[in-house]
Amino acid sequence: MRLFNLLIPALFIFLLTGNMGVRAETEPNIYEQRMTLYKKVEAVTNIPWYYLAAVDQYERNIRSVRRDLPKAEGVTGIYFKPEEWVGLLNPNLEDQNPTSIKFFNGIGVDGNGDGKADVKNDEDVLFAFAQYLLSYGVDHDNIKIGLWDYFQRDKTVGIIIGKAQIYKHFGRIDLEEHAFPVPLRSNHSYKNTWGDARGWGGRRIHEGTDIFADYGVPVRATSYGIVEMKGWNRYGGWRVGIRDINNNYHYFAHLSGFAKDLKLGQIVEPGMLIGGGGSSGYGPPGTSGKFPPHLHYGMYKDNGYTEWSYDPYPHLRLWEKQERQKARKK
């Protein structure tokens, strides 16, 4: 009888977790849901799906770091203010009637054919933004004009266009993998130095983590992204800046040189060679050797208004751990 009492709970747990596993396997993941929605709206409006995905991802990212915007809850991340959705002069901020919304020049539309223009419905929201872009045209240049008129910020347009190019290049949106910036087998060391004082060129704080390694050690892209900056400055020496799909700017400084054929606008993926570690910087172009060779790695976040530095150390530790675990499985 005691054995029976022990087996029943165990069987119940097995059946419960088994059903959960089956349900998880049969339910589409969030990337599949989003891609299905992008393709559906593309088929109706002829706005290429990767532009829709880029706007959606940009909006989702800024909502995650801004206190003045509600967090994204649905499949899409695009946000419309109530008065923008229903029209500025519309007395009913919860209006879902497409006819009255159109009368008050609101942006809201019925995207799924249910007779309602619901700002909380993913299809309605994405279709509304696609309709807005469609009023400018479906080619690249006119989409850029539409994006500028909507966001009124050059940097935002550049970030969104970069995301679109990344999505188009890879043909998918599940691009969250990362790599440690130097090979794990290399002789390297690092600790948390973000926020430490720096004196050369005036008092300032250290906006990154220094990874000390041999001169010329391969430096690799840490994420899927696009090369936004390449060249020299007197602090970072030879440096590369890569923007990823989450509005993060990854900064690689003090390089000994760049990978062959690396250029502005180039699309990269985790582990791709971008340069070599060195000791360049603290002077005019070509200055080197004023400190031990190392990679300065920084991370910056854009929130639609400004960009700020944040501590990359926890991310580096995580990516190193993940890469070691992946290597052990091979």
Any overview of this molecule?
The chain contains nine helices and twelve strands. The chain is an alpha+beta fold. A hairpin with a 4-residue loop joins strand 11 and strand 12 (307-310). Helix 2 (30-45) packs across helix 3 (49-65) and helix 7 crosses helix 8 (154-170). It is elongated, with a radius of gyration of 24 Å. It starts with a helix and ends with a helix.
Write the layout of secondary structure elements.
Elements: H1 2-26, H2 30-45, H3 49-65, H4 82-86, H5 98-103, H6 122-134, H7 140-151, H8 154-170, E1 188-190, E2 197-198, E3 204-205, E4 209-213, E5 218-220, E6 225-233, E7 237-244, E8 248-258, E9 267-268, E10 273-277, E11 294-302, E12 307-310, H9 313-329
Antiparallel strand pairs: 1-4, 2-3, 4-11, 5-10, 6-7, 6-9, 7-8, 8-10, 8-11, 11-12
Helix pairs in contact: 2-3, 2-6, 3-8, 7-8
Number of helices: 9
Shape, per Cα inertia axes: elongated
Q: What is the helix/strand order?
A: HHHHHHHHEEEEEEEEEEEEH
Unreliable spans:
1-26
Profile the largest sheet: 10 strands, antiparallel
Number of strands: 12
Gyration radius (Cα, Å) is 24 Å
Mean pLDDT score = 90
Overall structural class, as computed from helix and strand content, comes to alpha+beta
For this entry, give a set of tags.
single chain, 330 residues, alpha+beta, ten-stranded antiparallel β-sheet, two-stranded antiparallel sheet, 9 helices, 12 strands, 39% helix, elongated, disordered N terminus
